Amino acid sequence: MAPEHALTQKLVTKLRRWRNRHTYARMFRLAAAGNYFQAACLAWSLGEHDLQRQYETLHRIQQAGARCTPITPSPATRRAFLYDARDRRN
């Protein structure tokens, strides 16, 4: 590959990133907030396939953790359950 071609590719990449800087910022904000699925979608639309794979992996880990954690009822649900249990006991 000629050095001119490498330099042109580097400049094209910098221009593309500068032109889409707001989309990149949005993608990084989504990832920082833990919304890896939408961040992966934005990475795909920007052509950042390495970032897309990374965000998809983090999303899968997040989903696996959500499936493994026990469901804790809200205080209102807990009160209703205790009231129902007390009512059945009497």
Question: In words, what does this structure look like?
Answer:
- With 90 residues, the protein is an all-alpha fold.
- The chain is built from five helices and no strands.
- The protein has helices spanning 3-19, 21-32, 36-46, 49-68, 75-89.
- Helix 2 packs antiparallel against helix 3 (36-46) and helix 3 runs antiparallel to helix 4.
- 9% of the residues are buried.
- The model has no long low-confidence stretch (mean pLDDT 87).
State the helix count: 5
Sequence of secondary-structure elements:
HHHHH
**How big a fraction of the residues is strand?**
under 5%
Low-confidence stretches: none
Instruction: State the end-to-end CA separation.
Output: 85 Å
Helix/strand/pairing category: mainly alpha
Specify Rg, calculated over alpha carbons: 24 Å
Helix content range: over 70%
Give the integer mean of the pLDDT values: 87
Query: What's the count of strands?
Result: 0
Overall morphology = rod-shaped
Biggest sheet statistics: none
